[in-house]
TrEMBL record:
Record key words, sorted: Plasmid
One GO BP: DNA-mediated transformation
Origin species: Bradyrhizobium guangdongense
Protein name per the record: Smf/DprA SLOG domain-containing protein
SUPFAM superfamilies linked: MCP/YpsA-like, RuvA domain 2-like
Family annotation (PANTHER family): PROTEIN SMF
UniProt keyword annotation of Secreted present: no
Similarity-based family: Belongs to the DprA/Smf family.
Amino acid sequence: MIGTETRTAAGILTLTALRGIGPATAERLAERFSLLEAILGAEPAKLRSVVSAAVAECLQEPAAIVKASEKAQRVLDEADRRGVRVLSIFDTDYPVALRSLADRPPILFVKGQLPPRRSVACIGTREPSEFGEIVSDRIVETLVGANWAIVSGLAIGVDTLSHQSALHHGGRTVAVMAGGLEGIYPKQNSKLAEEILEKDGALISEQPFGVPPSPRNLVQRDRLQSGLSIATFVMQTDIKGGSMHTVRFTIQQDRVLFAPVPQGRHATEPKSQGILAMTQLPASRFAEAVRAEGDYRRILAERYGNRPVAVPLASKEDYASMLGLLESRLAGGETQTVAPPSSPTQMSML
């Protein structure tokens, strides 16, 4: 087992099973040492250039390495039984879109077909109003018609609507999970998860089997939804909704952010206030509204200035420019630009 290559899934899983080693440290060790036995035989000073003295001492205990290797093998065996692929960051088929993330997961658990680069995230509130339901279906239909895969989180509400709409319109969809892939959360979406797999989609998680979808893991999941995607579409959300985590990650990852603009009575709904903030407030006021801090606040100020953070979609007339911007970003073109919205009728539902 100590002859295992560190850059394989088995190697990364072994390293993360050792006391004091997290995902980022495991990746650094794999970059420095090609085999587990090379770590065991490394000079202490060389190890301490990567990890702390306490962790370095643990890394030179053969019994600890063997025990961690056995744990890693149990994970791989269970993955094989469940038809789940375990990808290392060093594997050639690890999603390219995630490689650019500073906090990328070194291990991914994948069931089904890996998402294509032509992917966009569609997210929003767990309690959508009529507006949220209608725009989710219409925007997803347009995206699927242009051959974009839909990434979402399998949660109730907009996530479920986005997955269902993608399948209904003949598209592919990917569910990024907050817990291990042995259990579907929420359980009521178990049938939907099966349909996603049946229609060439995928279930993806960075969490090992047995890990629950805790609040922290749900937030961590959000960065992967935006990270896998060229852009994020926020269909409907309150200013304090959980979707704002994905909005933050989208902006920090320099992805494009789109949002449909509610009009008439729909603009007064609580679940529309986050959308209005993204599409109408200058970035400085948006930062205050979401209580942005640190790096997030700096990015908002430097990148957006007095512009809104989201590209507004006010009517179907905006779909052509929306698709054009997506194609440009896919090709590595311009950074986000916010075009003025069209002038829709008061009750436009896109």
